[in-house]
């Protein structure tokens, strides 16, 4: 399972009515060529739009299309081989008479033995984070007792609800949250990022921002691009230094404008395992009254103990006033199971950010 730690939103102003907003957009779009250009660039992200159109035209040219199709077919064949090379006989129809328990258990053992053979090589990174089989069995036994519990009905399953609260508060304490801090469990690190950006977008609308933008380093997780695509947020990407592979906070500052709602920092990032300058970004976020999300999914439950082990990583958590949300993966070094699949989008405290997810009529999760 995974979850998103939330601090508090920055100040918000009275929202502009939808009618006034429509009038504003109509006026801007019809008054002048510059007004129409403004709408084109902000709403459609004009430069990227033009690039896509040119790329589409180029790839539609018959000789180019032929080469692309040839390479695509090869990629699909290789992908099919990689996916199915370890597969056994498949069953795609519901059996007329079912399957006996003995046969089910035999098939389960075959699958488990096959997967364990692949994962026990010691050469896998990015999906296995601890090799202790004794601990795995304990986690499996514990999870088995709650496999059919549903946190949507917390009054029926109070112990599941209690475990969620304890996990959230323990982690909030590890990341130096205060009494106002809260959080929620999600189905994955990607969903945590989606919820954070959805919340920022909704808060931005209350402040009259119709075309919200976020600023991220190019090394940020792809889930931020997915969130921007889903929620209609303009994405501003900042390149990293070609020698150090680190992003410069001042480069991110230069992209801030009146539509910027948040900046993103990773601790660490996925491509290189390097940390972004969270302390500098926090100062900038406070200066411009925007949000700062820290993606600590990969660092998760190691970074809170780094200082005790003699490593000075600097500040990256709620000790920084500019940090408003943090995403954390308990299955990475927190020894938790992967993808605990209850839907968790309920109120977990008095925090406005959590309540917004429930109270916004147009918001669905």
Structure description:
It is a single chain. The protein is of the alpha/beta class. It contains 12 helices and 7 strands. It has helices at 18-31, 33-44, 46-59, 62-84, 101-119, 133-144, 158-174, 189-206, 223-231, 249-253, 278-288, 352-359, and strands at residues 2-6, 182-186, 213-217, 234-238, 260-266, 291-295, 325-328. Helix 9 (223-231) links the parallel strand 3 (213-217) and strand 4 (234-238). The longest helix has 23 residues, at 62-84. It is globular and about 70 Å long.
Task: Using brief descriptors, characterize the structure shown.
365 residues; alpha/beta; seven-stranded mixed β-sheet; globular; disordered C terminus
Outline the fold blueprint.
Elements: E1 2-6, H1 18-31, H2 33-44, H3 46-59, H4 62-84, H5 101-119, H6 133-144, H7 158-174, E2 182-186, H8 189-206, E3 213-217, H9 223-231, E4 234-238, H10 249-253, E5 260-266, H11 278-288, E6 291-295, E7 325-328, H12 352-359
Parallel strand pairs: 3-4, 3-5, 5-6, 6-7
Antiparallel strand pairs: 1-2, 1-7
Helix pairs in contact: 1-2, 2-3, 8-9, 8-12
């Amino acid at each position: 399972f995974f979850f998103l730690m939330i601090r508090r939103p920055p100040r918000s102003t009275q929202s502009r009515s939808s009618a006034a907003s429509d009038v504003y957009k109509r006026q801007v779009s019809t008054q002048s060529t510059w007004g129409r250009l403004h709408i084109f660039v902000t709403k459609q992200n004009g430069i990227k739009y033009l690039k896509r159109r040119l790329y589409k035209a180029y790839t539609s040219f018959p000789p180019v299309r032929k080469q692309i199709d040839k390479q695509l077919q090869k990629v699909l064949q290789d992908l099919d081989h990689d996916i199915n090379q370890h597969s056994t006989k498949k069953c795609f129809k519901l059996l007329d008479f079912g399957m006996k328990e003995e046969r089910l258990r035999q098939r389960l053992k075959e699958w488990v033995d096959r997967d364990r053979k692949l994962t026990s090589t010691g050469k896998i990174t990015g999906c296995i984070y601890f090799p202790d089989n004794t601990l795995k069995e304990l986690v499996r036994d514990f999870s088995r007792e709650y496999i059919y519990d549903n946190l949507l009905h917390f009054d029926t399953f109070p112990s599941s609800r209690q475990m969620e609260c304890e996990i959230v508060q323990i982690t909030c304490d590890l990341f130096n949250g205060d009494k106002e801090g809260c959080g929620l469990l999600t189905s994955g690190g990607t969903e945590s990022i989606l919820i954070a950006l959805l919340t920022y977008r909704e808060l931005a609308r209350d402040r009259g921002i119709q075309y919200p933008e976020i600023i991220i380093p190019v090394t940020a997780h792809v889930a931020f691009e997915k969130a921007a695509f889903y929620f209609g947020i303009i994405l501003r990407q900042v390149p990293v230094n070609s020698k150090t592979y680190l992003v410069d906070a001042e480069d991110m500052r230069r992209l801030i404008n009146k539509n910027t709602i948040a900046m993103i920092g990773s601790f660490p990032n996925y491509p290189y395992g390097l940390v972004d300058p969270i302390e500098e970004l926090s100062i900038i976020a406070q200066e411009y009254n925007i949000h700062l999300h820290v993606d600590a999914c990969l660092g998760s439950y190691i970074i809170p103990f780094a200082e005790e082990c003699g490593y000075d990583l600097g500040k990256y958590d709620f000790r920084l006033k500019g940090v408003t949300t943090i995403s954390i993966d308990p299955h990475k070094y927190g020894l938790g199971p992967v993808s605990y699949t209850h839907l968790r989008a309920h109120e977990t405290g008095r925090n406005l950010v959590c309540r917004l997810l429930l109270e916004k009529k147009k918001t669905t999760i």
